[in-house]
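Page 42, continued from yesterday. The earlier attempt failed because a stray header line got pasted into the input along with the sequence. Redoing it now with the clean sequence only.
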Amino acid sequence: MTTFTLYHNPRCSKSREALTLLEDRRVVVNVHRYLDDPLDITQLRSLAQRLEDGVPALVRTNEAQWKALALQDPSDEERLQAIADNPRLMQRPILDDGTRARIGRPPEALLDLIE
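This time it went through. Structure tokens are written below.
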């Protein structure tokens, strides 16, 4: 049986929708509230490797925190460090099965991982 982890922010409507979608389909998930328990740079690097679009997809570039960093053409390591230092910059929700990960924007994007 596949073990799923949902990187979740309960204050985010898309994250709540994703959790509801998974629960409605009776998918058992470990909910990781990444703002309460941030990922370190090694965990972020590993998660990014499982995402289709890698590190760039992991960053919420429209956030004021990201813009305040004023990074010019950041490397993957700079992006990962920015997320490690500012967990709110991590994209959400993300569903991870340990082999592949998907960003749930829209939440239905997670379905190909569970079906």
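Notes: Residues 13-24 form the longest helix (12 residues).
Reminder to self: strip header lines before submitting.
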